[in-house]
Design a protein that fits this description.
Structural class: alpha/beta
Oligomer: single chain
Number of strands: 12
Shape: globular
Order of helices and strands: HEEHEHEEEHEHEEHEEE
Strand order of the largest sheet: 3-4-7-8
């Protein structure tokens, strides 16, 4: 937004997402809004943080159960930390994290939390303990001291009562310049660090994997597909690849991660998993505390 650049009329109209309306003839300066004839740009802001917190978690559970969807797990997705990399609950949004987890358990559900190796703040790691460009820093899990600090923070979450994690990232940063094998080694280093901090038998789903991950990670999920037919095809191919690669369990966002589908007017996220290539509907149904506004 605000960067100088050039937009091509033909390209913009080729990417038109509502071609059955009218032709795009212009945009506002930052291109958040594409102008059709006789249309106006009305930009507004919404504090999404007001929708993130304990109330959102239990609203999701209530709506899914009311719709007859079996729910076994609750996932509090990003953002929940005070800053990415702290692995500590933001006290403004979650003033009683342990109490939240106890309430979830009282509903007969288990509690899963989003984690990643990324760090966006000065949270105790030195520059020499980080990898990647400044905007995409991840912790260097080749270093025992870094792994130990990361695992201490994960164990503190286990002490609060979490039952498992959604281990995101691990594959986004270009690490090839730092070593010919590091790009492929990093997902396995990450998986070993996470699973080494969790009690034996804990649940976890990972986004990134490599040769050897099959012996470490309990399950994989296929990343963030669009809620389109192409996104569905990508998810299916991902599931087939995971099965042929020997991963014990695999899952995908039902209806796509980026989707306009709604449940009672609210856009949330749920997942299903499959084992041995047999679908188990909602064996692990997860809800996010964060809400997306399209």
């Amino acid at each position: 937004c605000g960067d100088p650049g050039m937009q091509f009329d033909t390209t913009v109209n080729r990417w038109h997402t509502s071609k059955n309306t009218a032709r795009i003839n212009a945009s506002n300066p930052c291109s958040e809004y594409m102008f059709l004839d006789d249309s106006a740009c009305n930009l507004a802001s919404l504090n999404l943080m007001k929708f993130v917190g304990p109330d959102g978690v239990f609203e999701d559970v209530s709506r899914l159960r009311s719709a007859g969807v079996p729910v076994g797990w609750v996932l509090v997705d990003n953002p929940w930390e005070s800053c990415v990399g702290t692995l500590r609950f933001d006290a403004r949004r979650f003033p009683d994290a342990a109490g939240l987890i106890r309430r979830v358990h009282a509903l007969g559900l288990r509690f899963m939390l989003w984690v990643s190796p990324k760090t966006q703040c000065n949270v105790g790691y030195t520059h020499a303990q980080l990898l990647g460009p400044i905007e995409q820093l991840v912790i260097d899990l080749r270093q025992p001291a870094v792994t130990a600090m990361f695992q201490r923070r994960l164990r503190a979450l286990v002490a609060l009562g979490i039952d498992g994690v959604k281990a995101d990232r691990g594959d986004e940063v270009d690490l090839q310049p730092l070593g010919s094998t590091l790009q492929n080694d990093y997902p396995l280093l990450y998986a070993r660090a996470v699973m080494g901090a969790l009690p034996r038998g804990s649940a976890a789903i990972f986004r990134a994997g490599t040769a050897g991950s099959q012996a470490v990670v309990p399950g994989m999920w296929s990343g963030d597909q669009e809620g389109t037919w192409e996104g569905l095809a990508q998810a299916i191919r991902s599931g087939e690849t995971a099965a042929m690669s020997g991963f014990p369990a695999w899952g995908s966002d039902i209806g796509g991660y980026h989707s306009t589908a709604s449940l009672g007017g609210t856009r949330r996220s749920s997942r299903s998993t499959s084992r041995s290539r047999r679908t188990v509907p909602s064996a692990v149904s997860l809800t996010q505390a964060s809400t997306s506004v399209a």
